[in-house]
Amino acid sequence: MLANHLVTRVFPDRIALPLIRRWATELREDLAELFGYRLEVTETTARLYPVHDRLDDGRPARSVNDRVFDRRRYAYLSLALAALGRAGDQITLSELAEHVADYASRIDGLDLSTERAADRDAFVDAVGWLGARGALTLADGDAGGWASDPEAGEALYDIDRPVVFALFRPPRALQHLHTVRGLLAEDTEQTATDQARRVRRALVERPVVYLAELSPGERALLGQDRVIAEVEYCTGLHAERRAEGVALIDTSGRLSDTRFPGTGTLAQVALLLIGEIADVVLDIDHPVPHRPDVAAAEDLLLDQLDAAIPEAGVFVPLAEDAQTLDTAESDEESPDAQPHTYPFLDETWVRATVSALTDRYGATFAAQWQADVGALTDEVLALLARLRLIRPVEGGLLVLPALARYRGAVVTVRVRRTEELFVTAAETGGTAAGGN
């Protein structure tokens, strides 16, 4: 439930829902007591309604082909859910596309044209996301055929209405929000119980919890053995404590949405880059500059979302109130608060380092990354930022303390099969020569 929030008869697998139904009472009590979460379990779904203390852009929706959703795909997904809520028990892909196209035509800057391949692909990705979670079940046809040629291809879907309704159940009406911050937990939670829940939520939702990001009361709670032991017992994970914070270690890989270290080009290059960063930061002969962490990434995300609120129609109060709230919050900031400083690395150095790593090990990288080192650098930095090992800032990045956890890691680069064909019999019988 912590990993998926929605469990159906087919998602994430066919054995999860029976287990959750079996332990529904215990799960409901534990999740409410420890984290303040609400769990609803029905015959066909189990839905966890978490309490969000912060927004996180590190867990985007992905297509069945692992393509990250963009704004258009999110829009099609939202409109498809609206159309399915008014549909019957079955719907064809072309009929659903007509409904979504009709809704999209009423929104400035958004449309769905079945004549454009890019629009069809984005729409099919949204439908595939719903299908993976059991909201739609393919009864006949092929969505890929429709995406290739909507005149010749078609697909028929069965609609699982309980899953559709469970997917979108906002705790409050959007029109009643004054800012995107209204989606988050109230900052007025000051009791010891509320603060303990915030700390436990941080432990299970963030790759690492830094003490510098917590309030004084929350820092004291994070230092208590009881609070951490409760989360360890509930999740089965092991807490690793350091002076800068705490991280839950998932050796099974079942709870984490991103496994690191891992396989694949991005994970391997990220680990190589970590080694280079650690060497530079620890070089006492050439100390790197330190910069303060002025604005947290989640605060920047909140400001960006508030700035994107439409200034027309029912959302006018949201846009106006968001500006007022931002001004009030900035006035309330404590002038005595001193931001923490972290090692700063220039973007030019980072990109040059990844380019050098590509020159050295690029023959073992996936072809798409060999051809586009710039995109490889962007994706590697995005991965390290999601893991909270670095924080991108203007002109470069800040090195966060948890990165040091991997400074001694050894990366083994696999020799390509074509090169191994020229190894002599004598070499195969002795020790490896020049292996990486």
Question: Would you write up a description of this structure?
Answer:
About 45% of the residues lie in helices and about 15% in strands. β8 (about 240) and β9 (about 245-250) form a beta hairpin. It is built from 18 helices and 13 strands. It has helices at about 15-20, 25-35, 70-85, 95-105, 115-130, 145-150, 160-165, 190-205, 215-220, 225-235, 265-280, 295-305, 315-330, 345-360, 365-370, 375-385, 415-420, 425-430, and strands at about 5-10, 40, 45-50, 90, 135-140, 155-160, 210, 240, 245-250, 290, 340-345, 390-395, 395-400. With about 425 residues, the protein is of the alpha+beta class. The longest helix is centred in the middle third of the chain and has 17 residues, at about 265-280. Mean pLDDT is about 85; it is low at about 315-335 and about 420-435. The strands form 4 sheets. A 4-stranded antiparallel sheet has the order 10-11-13-12. A 3-stranded antiparallel sheet has the order 1-3-2, sandwiched between helices. α3 packs across α5 (about 115-130) and α8 (about 190-205) packs across α9. The relative contact order is 0.09.
The proportion of residues forming helix, as a percent range, comes to 40-55%
Q: Give the beta-strand count.
A: 13
> How would you state the average pLDDT, rounded?
84
In what range is the share of β-strand residues? 5-15%
Q: Major sheet, described briefly?
A: 4 strands, antiparallel
